[in-house]
Design goal:
mainly alpha, 6 helices, 84% helix, 197 residues
Length: 197
């Protein structure tokens, strides 16, 4: 009979944070899907036809060239608005589906972390490395953007500090996941004889 390894407290904390992130991402994905569905179904064309009819009635009464050009411009603007609403709706649906899938993935990974599944350890390590890379890239690009367009040094410093803190947290998580007792819990190495937390 194999000896059951007790789950390290840090794994429980990481799993709880993953559950919280999964719930937030799931609700965010559902919200984006709803946003996208709303914008793709907005009956702007009905609004456009009603407004065009009202303005055509006014045109018949006044018959002025200026108003005709104004009506044509408003029709073009309304058509562009309809296209923009359709585009934003499509983007919202696509992003919502992705965010929802990631949120559900987080919840599945958190289950694996709590149960000591090896695939959850691998997934968490990979996602943590990706998160560090994304934070480095976003920190560099955000600092370049802020330096180019914004003269607010406080927001620049706050953004850099936030990226550094995020990188440090992910670095600690990555270090922790490679601790011998944590790897042993996930079946990635033999358990050590000393107690480590």
């Amino acid at each position: 009979m194999a000896e059951q390894i007790k789950r390290p407290i840090g794994v429980t904390i990481i799993a709880i944070l993953t559950i919280i992130g999964g719930i937030i991402l799931t609700f965010g994905g559902i919200s984006l899907l709803a946003f996208g569905a709303f914008f793709t179904s907005v009956p702007i064309d009905v609004f456009i036809s009603e407004q065009m009819q009202r303005q055509q009635e006014q045109l018949q009464l006044q018959q002025q060239q200026h108003q005709q050009q104004q009506l044509q411009q408003e029709v073009r603007n309304a058509t562009e608005l309809q296209a923009l609403a359709q585009f934003l709706g499509g983007v919202g649906i696509a992003l919502g589906a992705i965010v929802l899938a990631v949120g559900i993935g987080y919840l599945v990974v958190s289950y694996g972390l709590l149960k000591g599944k090896g695939w959850a350890w691998i997934t968490t390590v990979i996602l943590t490395i990706i998160a560090i890379a994304v934070q480095i890239v976003s920190g560099v690009t955000a600092s370049m953007f802020n330096a180019s367009f914004i003269d607010d040094t406080n927001s620049f410093a706050t953004g850099i500090i936030a990226q550094i803190v995020g990188i440090a947290i992910n670095g600690v998580i990555l270090y922790y996941l490679y601790r011998p007792n944590v790897k042993a819990f996930f079946g990635k190495s033999q358990p050590s004889t000393t107690i480590q937390r």
